[in-house]
Every structure is written in C-alpha cells, then in structure tokens.
Amino acid sequence: MTLRGREQGDKMAKLDVQTRAEKVLTDGQAIAAKAKSWAAFSNAVFGQHDSLVARAFPRMTERQAFYDTAQYEALNEILLSLITKFGVEQGASSRKSGKFVVRLPRTLHASLEVEASQEGVSLNQLALSKLAVRLNDSTDLTRSLIVEAFRQVYDGYSSDRVIVHPSLNEKFLRQCRRLGLPMSDYELNHALQGIRKSAPALLPPATKKPQITDYDEFLFASEIAFRHLQRREGVTLDHVMCDPELRARFDEIAKKLSNVADVFKLRMGALYLRKTHRLAPTGSTTPSFDLLRAGTIAKLKLDDVPDLPGMYAFYEDVRPIYAGETSKLRHRINLHMNVSERLFLPRWLELGYERNLELRFHAVPKASTRDRMLWLNQFINKERPPLNYQAAA
Fold first, then answer.
1. Predicted structure pTM score
2. Which residue of 67, 166, 220, 237 has the fewest CB atoms within a 10 Å radius of its CB?
C-alpha cells in the first residue's frame, strides 16, 4: 500500500464500520460513473492492496464485518450492472481505438514487407493476421471471474480451505453467482482447484494456515469415509470435496465413525491424507515391524492394548481390511470400537465383511512418526487392504 493509501487508511480506521461502508459506497459510485470497464471498477473498489475496501478496512475482521453490510451488497449490484453494460468479455478491459504504433527493427520491417509481397497482401493485413491469435476466450474469462470471486472471500487462506470450509465455500459460490457465473457448485469448486494446479500464480498467496493439531483423533474416519465413497461411486478426492452432495455424504459417514462433529476438520483430514499417506517412500530403508495378534474385536480388552505409538490392522481371516498408525494405540482402538458399537465396521457401510474382525498391532514407543508412516505405506502397497488401497485419490 502506498504512503498516501496508508494515511487514508489511518483516517478511515477511526470511523465505525457503517460510516466507512457509506464512504466506500459513495466513492465507489463516483468511480462507477467514470469507469470504462467493469474490471477497472472491480480493481479500484475490491483490489487486494490499494483499493477502496483495502484502505477503509485494513484489518480482515473489519473487512468481514463490511461484507455483511448493505453497502457491500450495493457495490456488488453496481458491479453486476457494469458487467451488463459493458459485456462480460468486452468489459474485462477498457475499449480501445483500434490503432497503436509498433516500432520494429529495420531488418524485421523489411522481412515483413517481403513476406507481405509474397503473400499478395498489404503489410497491415499481414500484421493483423499474425496478431489475430485469440489470447482470451470464454474459458479465460470464466477463470478470471473465479479468481476474482476467490480473491474477495479467501480471507488469507488457501483454495483448499475455501473449498472445504462450509462458510468460506458458501461465500465463494455466492460471489461467483454475483459475478454472473452460471456453473454448478461442483463446476465452480472444481474450476478453482484446476486454477490452483495449473495456474497458481493467478491466486493471491495464502498467508494463513488452518491450526489443526489433533489429526490423530479423526484421521482414520476421514480415510474410511473417503475410501467407502471411492469404492461405491468410483470418485476421486477432488470430486468428493468439490461436490456438495458427495461432500455431505462424506461428512455423514466420517462423523459417525469418530467423535468429531466439525466437518471442516474431517474434510481437511482427507486432504492431509493425500499430502502424507500417499507419498511413496524414497531414499530410505522402510522399517520392518511384525503385527501381533490381539484377538477378535468382540472379545478384545482395551487394557491389553498399550497406549503407546504404533501400527495396527483389522483382519478378516487372513486378509487385512484396514491399517493405520497412531501415537496412542489404545485411544485409537477405543475410538474405532466406541463409535461402531464394538463392530468396527458399522452395518450401514454395507461392505459385506464379517463383523467379528481380529485386531493385530505392534507398539513402537521409540519409532518416529516418519518411520510409522513408511511402514504403513509399505504395508498398504503390499497387502492392499480395501479401506486403504484404491486408485489414485
């Protein structure tokens, strides 16, 4: 932000939110009256660093309060009216006269004249044909509007968080609608994911990270819920997280499998799995641990399971159904058994397995989390338990 912008921001900060919102609306109306494109208006009012909103509401908490005001709604209505006035594509930039001067090296000028003569066209026609490659199409415009919607609501977080966080995703989708995007919720979320993967520089950098430290309490539930949907629907993790219907089904299953009611945590757990559990071990020797039989779930005594770091797996006869690692074995097994009424695989999962499964585990108090993860990756790749191993997520 410029020095002048900071000075204006300091003056505005002394006013209450409503007064500042009125000032932003008044100034925005003045900008709209002179705007030569809807994009120019959007940048001047909603830009991230030196816009009306950024100067009037420098702190994110104030900006969130502004987003709930009638003045913010009025500014969005102005933006929509400008999009209608200028056209979605044409209004992305100001109108041009159709003429501009290009200074060329003499040798290039001479070679273009020769080529124009050979083609039997004027130099102007030749230059026009070379410049006629379309730089922006409807796909680029849609992408620009999605980036604009994301920029207005992301609150410093990554695109992953905006997609999986209930309130942020609702704001993102609502803002996309305000900008005239007719796509479905899934298509908008998936398009944002695509931008993150193919053109991350278009998105403002994330300055905040979700503070989740208790993954061990629910990570297994996130994994089983996703794998169940993957087996039943043949979907990827992006499909599940971007599609509101699939996401709701994921939430329902994961909440029943754990004591965690916060769907944001459960969804982030699935993304965390993709970032960690699916990494192939490289450059290290995978530690070898043998699982010890603890008995069937129906007869298992939790006191016989040490509350130490370790690995475990549930078996149906000789086949492992699910494997995991944890920093507290007894606590994790207790979570499995309590929420599933000592059945581990609830009947509503409809997987067709026998319910009287056997637990096998190995306590490794001195093994690092990395060693446990390396073992788990090796075990999953070798044994392919159905609630761990699928096609790429």
1. 0.53
2. 166
